[in-house]
Amino acid sequence: MHYEGNIIRPPSEANSILLQVTVGCSRNKCTFCGTFMGERFRIKSDDIIMQDIAFAAKYCKKQRRIFLCDGDVMIVPQKRLLHILTEIKKQLPWVTRVGVYANAKSLKMKTVDELRTLKDNGIGIAYMGLETGDDVTLKNINKGATSETMIQMGKKAREAGIKLSITVLLGIAGRERSQIHARETGRVLSAIDPEYTGALSLMLIPGTPLHKDYEAGKFTLIEPDEMLQELRTMIAHTHMSRGLFHANHASNYLPIRARLPRDKEETLKLIDQALEGSVALKPEWLRAL
Ligand code: SF4
Protein backbone atom coordinates (compact mmCIF):
# COMPACT_ATOMS: atom_id res chain seq x y z
CA MET A 1 0.00 0.00 0.00
CA HIS A 2 1.19 3.53 -0.70
CA TYR A 3 1.06 5.70 2.40
CA GLU A 4 2.17 9.32 2.61
CA GLY A 5 2.47 11.58 5.66
CA ASN A 6 0.56 10.99 8.89
CA ILE A 7 -2.08 8.30 8.56
CA ILE A 8 -4.88 8.63 11.07
CA ARG A 9 -7.96 6.52 11.58
CA PRO A 10 -10.65 6.29 14.26
CA PRO A 11 -9.93 3.72 17.02
CA SER A 12 -12.91 1.66 15.85
CA GLU A 13 -11.25 1.20 12.45
CA ALA A 14 -8.16 -0.45 13.95
CA ASN A 15 -8.81 -3.72 12.10
CA SER A 16 -9.95 -2.18 8.83
CA ILE A 17 -8.07 -2.04 5.56
CA LEU A 18 -6.60 1.47 5.43
CA LEU A 19 -6.82 2.85 1.91
CA GLN A 20 -5.30 6.30 1.59
CA VAL A 21 -7.33 8.38 -0.83
CA THR A 22 -6.29 11.87 0.25
CA VAL A 23 -3.20 13.33 1.88
CA GLY A 24 -3.85 15.79 4.70
CA CYS A 25 -7.06 17.58 5.52
CA SER A 26 -9.01 19.97 3.33
CA ARG A 27 -9.53 22.37 6.25
CA ASN A 28 -6.29 22.13 8.20
CA LYS A 29 -7.03 25.29 10.19
CA CYS A 30 -8.40 24.07 13.51
CA THR A 31 -6.24 25.71 16.18
CA PHE A 32 -5.81 22.59 18.35
CA CYS A 33 -5.00 20.11 15.58
CA GLY A 34 -1.46 19.16 14.74
CA THR A 35 -2.22 16.07 12.68
CA PHE A 36 -1.54 17.51 9.26
CA MET A 37 0.52 20.56 10.18
CA GLY A 38 2.31 21.89 7.09
CA GLU A 39 0.77 19.20 4.86
CA ARG A 40 -0.77 20.41 1.60
CA PHE A 41 -4.12 18.75 1.01
CA ARG A 42 -4.46 16.68 -2.15
CA ILE A 43 -6.40 13.79 -3.57
CA LYS A 44 -4.12 10.95 -4.58
CA SER A 45 -3.97 9.84 -8.19
CA ASP A 46 -6.51 7.26 -9.34
CA ASP A 47 -3.61 5.06 -10.52
CA ILE A 48 -2.16 4.78 -7.01
CA ILE A 49 -5.58 4.27 -5.42
CA MET A 50 -6.43 1.50 -7.92
CA GLN A 51 -3.05 -0.18 -7.30
CA ASP A 52 -3.81 -0.17 -3.57
CA ILE A 53 -7.28 -1.63 -4.10
CA ALA A 54 -5.69 -4.39 -6.22
CA PHE A 55 -3.15 -4.99 -3.43
CA ALA A 56 -5.93 -5.22 -0.83
CA ALA A 57 -7.84 -7.60 -3.10
CA LYS A 58 -4.84 -9.93 -2.93
CA TYR A 59 -3.65 -9.57 0.64
CA CYS A 60 -6.54 -8.28 2.79
CA LYS A 61 -9.10 -11.01 2.32
CA LYS A 62 -9.88 -11.37 6.02
CA GLN A 63 -10.73 -7.72 6.66
CA ARG A 64 -14.43 -6.95 6.36
CA ARG A 65 -14.15 -3.19 6.69
CA ILE A 66 -12.20 -0.53 4.85
CA PHE A 67 -11.41 2.99 5.98
CA LEU A 68 -10.61 5.68 3.46
CA CYS A 69 -7.88 7.92 4.91
CA ASP A 70 -6.87 10.79 5.48
CA GLY A 71 -8.80 13.72 6.84
CA ASP A 72 -12.05 14.30 5.06
CA VAL A 73 -12.37 11.90 2.11
CA MET A 74 -16.00 13.06 1.84
CA ILE A 75 -14.59 16.13 0.05
CA VAL A 76 -13.57 14.00 -2.96
CA PRO A 77 -15.81 14.91 -5.93
CA GLN A 78 -18.80 12.61 -6.24
CA LYS A 79 -17.81 10.99 -9.53
CA ARG A 80 -14.30 10.10 -8.33
CA LEU A 81 -15.53 8.85 -5.00
CA LEU A 82 -18.14 6.69 -6.67
CA HIS A 83 -15.48 5.26 -8.97
CA ILE A 84 -13.37 4.28 -5.92
CA LEU A 85 -16.40 2.73 -4.18
CA THR A 86 -17.35 0.80 -7.31
CA GLU A 87 -13.85 -0.67 -7.57
CA ILE A 88 -13.90 -1.60 -3.88
CA LYS A 89 -17.22 -3.36 -4.39
CA LYS A 90 -15.93 -5.15 -7.49
CA GLN A 91 -12.51 -6.20 -6.21
CA LEU A 92 -13.21 -6.60 -2.49
CA PRO A 93 -16.71 -8.10 -2.43
CA TRP A 94 -16.19 -9.36 1.15
CA VAL A 95 -15.99 -5.78 2.48
CA THR A 96 -19.21 -4.92 4.30
CA ARG A 97 -18.56 -1.33 5.33
CA VAL A 98 -16.60 1.67 4.07
CA GLY A 99 -15.77 4.42 6.58
CA VAL A 100 -14.65 8.00 5.97
CA TYR A 101 -13.96 11.21 7.84
CA ALA A 102 -16.34 14.03 6.98
CA ASN A 103 -16.63 17.63 8.10
CA ALA A 104 -19.38 20.22 7.81
CA LYS A 105 -17.81 21.70 4.68
CA SER A 106 -17.61 18.43 2.76
CA LEU A 107 -21.10 17.35 3.81
CA LYS A 108 -22.40 20.75 2.69
CA MET A 109 -21.00 20.11 -0.78
CA LYS A 110 -23.07 16.95 -1.24
CA THR A 111 -26.84 16.70 -1.57
CA VAL A 112 -28.85 14.18 0.43
CA ASP A 113 -29.33 12.19 -2.79
CA GLU A 114 -25.60 12.15 -3.44
CA LEU A 115 -24.95 11.00 0.10
CA ARG A 116 -27.60 8.33 -0.33
CA THR A 117 -25.85 7.14 -3.50
CA LEU A 118 -22.58 6.93 -1.55
CA LYS A 119 -24.38 4.94 1.13
CA ASP A 120 -25.85 2.60 -1.49
CA ASN A 121 -22.33 2.10 -2.84
CA GLY A 122 -20.74 1.16 0.45
CA ILE A 123 -20.18 4.17 2.74
CA GLY A 124 -21.69 2.98 5.98
CA ILE A 125 -20.21 5.37 8.50
CA ALA A 126 -18.87 8.92 8.58
CA TYR A 127 -16.73 10.24 11.43
CA MET A 128 -17.28 13.93 12.09
CA GLY A 129 -15.37 16.17 14.47
CA LEU A 130 -17.85 18.43 16.23
CA GLU A 131 -15.46 19.22 19.12
CA THR A 132 -18.02 21.56 20.73
CA GLY A 133 -21.55 22.81 20.28
CA ASP A 134 -20.62 26.22 21.69
CA ASP A 135 -20.56 28.79 18.89
CA VAL A 136 -18.05 31.06 20.63
CA THR A 137 -15.63 28.16 21.04
CA LEU A 138 -16.23 26.90 17.49
CA LYS A 139 -15.16 30.35 16.31
CA ASN A 140 -12.20 30.51 18.68
CA ILE A 141 -10.84 27.18 17.46
CA ASN A 142 -11.44 28.13 13.83
CA LYS A 143 -13.55 25.06 13.12
CA GLY A 144 -15.16 26.75 10.12
CA ALA A 145 -18.76 25.92 11.01
CA THR A 146 -21.45 27.10 13.40
CA SER A 147 -23.39 24.78 15.65
CA GLU A 148 -26.41 25.20 13.37
CA THR A 149 -24.39 24.08 10.34
CA MET A 150 -23.05 21.13 12.32
CA ILE A 151 -26.60 20.14 13.22
CA GLN A 152 -27.84 20.46 9.63
CA MET A 153 -24.90 18.50 8.19
CA GLY A 154 -25.09 15.79 10.82
CA LYS A 155 -28.80 15.36 10.18
CA LYS A 156 -28.18 15.29 6.44
CA ALA A 157 -25.78 12.37 6.72
CA ARG A 158 -28.24 10.53 8.92
CA GLU A 159 -31.11 11.25 6.55
CA ALA A 160 -29.06 9.61 3.82
CA GLY A 161 -28.75 6.51 6.00
CA ILE A 162 -25.04 6.97 6.76
CA LYS A 163 -24.21 6.18 10.38
CA LEU A 164 -22.58 9.03 12.21
CA SER A 165 -19.80 8.93 14.75
CA ILE A 166 -19.16 12.31 16.34
CA THR A 167 -16.09 13.41 18.25
CA VAL A 168 -16.25 16.01 21.00
CA LEU A 169 -13.29 17.45 22.85
CA LEU A 170 -13.23 17.89 26.62
CA GLY A 171 -11.26 20.94 27.68
CA ILE A 172 -11.39 22.68 24.29
CA ALA A 173 -13.25 25.73 25.63
CA GLY A 174 -10.73 26.45 28.39
CA ARG A 175 -11.87 27.22 31.94
CA GLU A 176 -14.21 30.14 31.47
CA ARG A 177 -16.52 28.47 28.96
CA SER A 178 -16.10 24.90 30.19
CA GLN A 179 -19.66 24.43 31.42
CA ILE A 180 -21.20 26.38 28.53
CA HIS A 181 -19.26 24.12 26.14
CA ALA A 182 -20.60 21.07 27.97
CA ARG A 183 -24.23 22.20 27.85
CA GLU A 184 -24.08 23.42 24.25
CA THR A 185 -22.40 20.23 23.10
CA GLY A 186 -25.18 18.25 24.75
CA ARG A 187 -27.69 20.42 22.89
CA VAL A 188 -26.06 19.79 19.49
CA LEU A 189 -25.61 16.06 20.11
CA SER A 190 -29.27 15.81 21.09
CA ALA A 191 -30.30 17.59 17.89
CA ILE A 192 -28.16 15.37 15.62
CA ASP A 193 -28.86 12.19 17.59
CA PRO A 194 -25.85 10.26 16.21
CA GLU A 195 -25.31 6.52 16.54
CA TYR A 196 -21.93 7.04 18.23
CA THR A 197 -20.28 9.83 20.19
CA GLY A 198 -16.66 9.76 21.28
CA ALA A 199 -15.38 12.22 23.88
CA LEU A 200 -11.63 12.83 23.83
CA SER A 201 -9.70 14.97 26.31
CA LEU A 202 -7.68 17.85 24.93
CA MET A 203 -3.93 17.35 24.80
CA LEU A 204 -1.99 20.38 23.58
CA ILE A 205 0.25 19.78 20.57
CA PRO A 206 3.39 21.91 20.37
CA GLY A 207 3.41 24.11 17.27
CA THR A 208 -0.36 24.49 17.06
CA PRO A 209 -1.98 27.94 17.50
CA LEU A 210 -3.76 26.71 20.64
CA HIS A 211 -0.48 25.63 22.21
CA LYS A 212 0.95 29.06 21.44
CA ASP A 213 -2.08 30.66 23.14
CA TYR A 214 -1.49 28.41 26.13
CA GLU A 215 2.15 29.43 26.34
CA ALA A 216 1.15 33.10 26.07
CA GLY A 217 -1.31 32.66 28.92
CA LYS A 218 -4.33 33.21 26.66
CA PHE A 219 -5.72 29.69 27.03
CA THR A 220 -6.15 27.66 30.21
CA LEU A 221 -5.87 23.89 30.13
CA ILE A 222 -8.39 22.66 32.66
CA GLU A 223 -7.58 20.10 35.34
CA PRO A 224 -8.73 16.44 35.24
CA ASP A 225 -11.57 17.05 37.71
CA GLU A 226 -12.80 19.97 35.58
CA MET A 227 -12.76 17.69 32.52
CA LEU A 228 -14.89 15.23 34.46
CA GLN A 229 -17.32 17.98 35.51
CA GLU A 230 -17.51 18.92 31.84
CA LEU A 231 -18.17 15.34 30.81
CA ARG A 232 -20.84 15.03 33.48
CA THR A 233 -22.70 18.14 32.32
CA MET A 234 -22.35 17.09 28.69
CA ILE A 235 -23.87 13.66 29.30
CA ALA A 236 -26.59 15.13 31.52
CA HIS A 237 -27.56 17.50 28.68
CA THR A 238 -27.40 14.86 25.93
CA HIS A 239 -30.80 13.42 25.14
CA MET A 240 -30.52 10.70 22.52
CA SER A 241 -33.12 8.33 21.18
CA ARG A 242 -30.40 5.65 21.33
CA GLY A 243 -26.65 5.75 20.85
CA LEU A 244 -23.29 4.83 22.27
CA PHE A 245 -21.39 7.47 24.18
CA HIS A 246 -17.73 6.57 24.57
CA ALA A 247 -15.08 8.32 26.57
CA ASN A 248 -12.65 5.43 26.47
CA HIS A 249 -10.03 7.06 24.26
CA ALA A 250 -6.42 6.90 25.47
CA SER A 251 -6.52 10.64 26.20
CA ASN A 252 -9.32 10.31 28.77
CA TYR A 253 -8.94 10.18 32.55
CA LEU A 254 -12.00 7.98 33.19
CA PRO A 255 -12.97 5.30 30.64
CA ILE A 256 -16.69 5.38 29.90
CA ARG A 257 -18.78 3.29 27.55
CA ALA A 258 -22.47 4.08 27.89
CA ARG A 259 -25.51 3.21 25.88
CA LEU A 260 -27.77 6.24 26.06
CA PRO A 261 -30.33 6.85 27.35
CA ARG A 262 -30.27 3.47 29.16
CA ASP A 263 -26.99 3.93 31.06
CA LYS A 264 -27.21 7.66 31.71
CA GLU A 265 -27.91 7.67 35.46
CA GLU A 266 -25.35 4.93 36.12
CA THR A 267 -22.72 6.83 34.12
CA LEU A 268 -23.40 10.09 35.96
CA LYS A 269 -23.06 8.17 39.23
CA LEU A 270 -19.69 6.74 38.12
CA ILE A 271 -18.43 10.24 37.26
CA ASP A 272 -19.61 11.50 40.67
CA GLN A 273 -17.68 8.69 42.36
CA ALA A 274 -14.57 9.63 40.39
CA LEU A 275 -15.04 13.27 41.37
CA GLU A 276 -15.32 12.23 45.03
CA GLY A 277 -12.13 10.19 44.69
CA SER A 278 -13.63 6.74 45.19
CA VAL A 279 -12.87 5.70 41.56
CA ALA A 280 -9.28 6.10 40.36
CA LEU A 281 -8.42 8.21 37.30
CA LYS A 282 -5.89 7.23 34.66
CA PRO A 283 -2.46 8.64 35.56
CA GLU A 284 -1.11 11.38 33.28
CA TRP A 285 1.74 9.17 31.98
CA LEU A 286 -0.74 6.65 30.59
CA ARG A 287 -2.63 9.22 28.51
CA ALA A 288 -1.97 9.50 24.79
CA LEU A 289 -3.55 10.77 21.60
S1 SF4 B 1 -9.47 18.79 13.45
FE1 SF4 B 1 -10.12 17.65 11.64
S2 SF4 B 1 -10.93 19.25 10.25
FE2 SF4 B 1 -9.69 20.31 11.79
S3 SF4 B 1 -7.64 20.46 10.88
FE3 SF4 B 1 -7.65 18.58 12.13
S4 SF4 B 1 -8.20 16.94 10.72
FE4 SF4 B 1 -8.77 18.89 9.73
TrEMBL record:
Organism's domain of life?
A: Bacteria
Name a Pfam family for this protein.
Radical_SAM
Q: Which cofactors go with this protein?
A: [4Fe-4S] cluster
Presence of keyword S-adenosyl-L-methionine: yes
Q: Which CDD domains match?
A: Radical_SAM
* Domain named Radical SAM core: residues: 9-241
**GO MF term list:** catalytic activity; iron-sulfur cluster binding; metal ion binding
The protein's UniProt keywords, in alphabetical order, are:
Iron, Iron-sulfur, Metal-binding, S-adenosyl-L-methionine
Output this protein's name.
Radical SAM domain-containing protein
Q: Which organism is it from?
A: Desulfonema magnum
- Classification of source organism: Bacteria, Pseudomonadati, Thermodesulfobacteriota, Desulfobacteria, Desulfobacterales
